[in-house]
Amino acid sequence: MRQVIIIGSGPAGFTAAIYAARANLNPVLVASSVEVGGELMKTTEVENFPGFPEGIQGPDLMAKMQEQAERFGTEVLYDDVTELDLDGDVKKVTLGSGTVLEAASIIYATGSAYRTLGIPGEERLSGHGVSWCATCDGFFFRDRTIAVVGGGDSAMEEATFLTKFASKVYVIHRKDTLRASKIMQERAFANDKIEFIWNSAVEEVLGEDATTGVRLRNTVDGTVTDLPVDGLFIAIGNDPRTHLVHGKLDLTPEGTIWVDGRSSRTSVPGVFAAGDVIDPTYRQAVTAAGSGTVAALDVEHFLAALSDGTAAEAALA
Ligand SMILES: Cc1cc2nc3c(=O)[nH]c(=O)nc-3n(C[C@H](O)[C@H](O)[C@H](O)COP(=O)(O)OP(=O)(O)OC[C@H]3O[C@@H](n4cnc5c(N)ncnc54)[C@H](O)[C@@H]3O)c2cc1C
After folding, report:
1. For the whole model, what pTM was predicted?
2. Which residues line ligand 1 (CB under 6 A)?
């Protein structure tokens, strides 16, 4: 039986692995079969991860994290977790290959997925003008024209934040009213740099190697127009990857995994969670990495208490 199995290969999973491996816990990390490295694999330049003053490409950063985790003995499995049995002291993790791993503890770090529009150009131009994160990428759009798609609080927040950099921000919304809270709407309406384009759906992102515009279809009369922009920020929601633990772990009203205060302890003893899957608010690589650290330290504490015969206290600590 393993001491700890880490599920997920983003900044949270690999950071948890670095700490767990250096604490001699011999972690195994299930990285997924196709999406190894997590969300940063979808981006180009990362300029806000400390330690890289010149910036670093997202995939390069994740390769370094993996190398660091493996250097201390983390075993990385390129497979998907398909089922979890979290009852009792021995946790069972079933992989796509059919293998069942057992461990005294689990760190669940499966991240969250930004919703996509599913339109031509979106995936191809991701990191080349198409973005899901104003905090991450707003800085690249100084004095540029940007469009934000969405009508909720996060769209208003992204649009307002982007006016710090952009010369103009269009907010494109399918309807003629917003879902966003009144205060967020008022803040956006009052901003001179923001212009609303109502009753419009983005049908295509235009551009070869970089975004040059968006094609819009009017949802009322069907007319099609092209709007020249340098960037498109998609703010239509985010789904924590929790399907494996529905009914097994408590969730928050936002759909993230519930954890006890500032710890990584979930509602089930021996199961810890870290990264964007517990975070409805910040969702950054460095916060996910910090959260992975917390999870590894909590696991260390839990396992130490188990071996001292104080398991109940460990679960409640
Ligand atoms: C396009 C883009 C650009 C971004 N740019 C920046 C930036 O510049 N700076 C910044 O700080 N943040 C940026 N972010 C946000 C950042 O990527 C996330 O906050 C961070 O990756 C979250 O880390 P995580 O480890 O919690 O989850 P993730 O990175 O989402 O990793 C989760 C991992 O778990 C795996 N997984 C899920 N389910 C299973 C399963 N059943 N079995 C096995 N594995 C599974 C996934 O495949 C994935 O590899 C960006 C995000 C995107 C989408």
Report:
1. 0.89
2. 7-13, 30, 32, 35, 37-40, 42-43, 46, 48, 80-81, 109-111, 114, 126, 132-133, 136, 241, 244, 275-276, 283-286, 288
